[in-house]
């Protein structure tokens, strides 16, 4: 049987890739890992140099930004697989993980995959659009320092503080609009480090 691309030696692959650019591991990581199984095994051994990950999924299309480079996906399984290939590294700490608009089905599959692998995501800042289960990602985040929530759905302040203030040093809540009653609720909160900035209430605990 003649050799195939799967049989290409790793050193040859690296030599070819080095001709693409100096930062080929960052630029072509997700292209190369989906070429064939042998490429995937090798690429997945590269420690990611990615500081921020943003995920948006809606209307059957999923957009993921890895370090400001945008990737569009039509298939949930492929998206989850690419995400896990980066998030699985226990010694890598990301600056930001953001989950914006999302499809419930995609989010469910993503969370189940993380749980099945018992992953712990090391990340400094988590940003969430609090409209559903995306808040559950916090169960898999290892000691995040900052939590930012778009609270336009108006989850009660007490509920958020009760669930997360002891685990996360700083919580920022964002509102599209805030009426007098809701503003009073925030001001009456016992936390003395509450402050207001434009449409954002921040709670440092």
UniProtKB/TrEMBL annotation:
Species this protein is from: Caenorhabditis nigoni
InterPro entries: F-box_dom
Protein name: F-box domain-containing protein
The F-box domain, residue ranges: 5-46
């Amino acid at each position: 049987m003649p050799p195939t691309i799967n049989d290409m030696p790793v050193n040859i692959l690296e030599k070819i890739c080095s001709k693409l650019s100096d930062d080929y591991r960052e630029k072509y990581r997700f292209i190369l890992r989906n070429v064939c199984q042998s490429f995937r095994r090798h690429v997945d051994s590269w420690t990611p140099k990615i500081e921020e990950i943003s995920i948006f999924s809606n209307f059957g299309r999923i957009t993921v930004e890895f370090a400001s480079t945008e990737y569009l996906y039509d298939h949930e399984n492929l998206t989850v697989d690419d995400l896990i290939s980066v998030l699985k590294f226990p010694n890598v700490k990301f600056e930001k993980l953001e989950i914006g608009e999302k499809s419930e089905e995609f989010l469910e599959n993503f969370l189940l995959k993380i749980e099945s692998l018992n992953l712990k995501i090391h990340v400094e800042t988590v940003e969430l659009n609090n409209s559903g289960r995306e808040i559950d990602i916090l169960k898999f985040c290892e000691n995040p320092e900052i939590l930012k929530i778009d609270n336009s759905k108006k989850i009660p302040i007490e509920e958020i503080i009760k669930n997360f203030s002891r685990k996360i040093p700083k919580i920022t809540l964002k509102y599209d609009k805030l009426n007098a009653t809701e503003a009073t609720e925030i001001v009456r909160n016992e936390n003395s480090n509450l402050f207001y900035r434009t449409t954002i209430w921040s709670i440092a605990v």
